[in-house]
């Protein structure tokens, strides 16, 4: 009987040890803090951003309500574009080459 109890206890502690193993998540996102946000005129957006907006079905027929130039601590520049009205607006971010920046959480 003692052997069965010992085997059971070892099994429980082994299982608990496996459950307590650290989990390494390789899917992480580096978030850079925006240091500066300046509103710019939509016509002042880089041509690459305007071209991307004109090519995408989701944005090509939308009116640009506002545009912002965002600069982070490292000096990297992104552009935030708000389409439509404030109530039914759509907001997207682009880099200077016109690539849409998709934020993952």
TrEMBL record:
Signal as UniProt keyword: yes
Signal sequence range: 1-20
Keyword field: Signal
Protein name: PepSY domain-containing protein
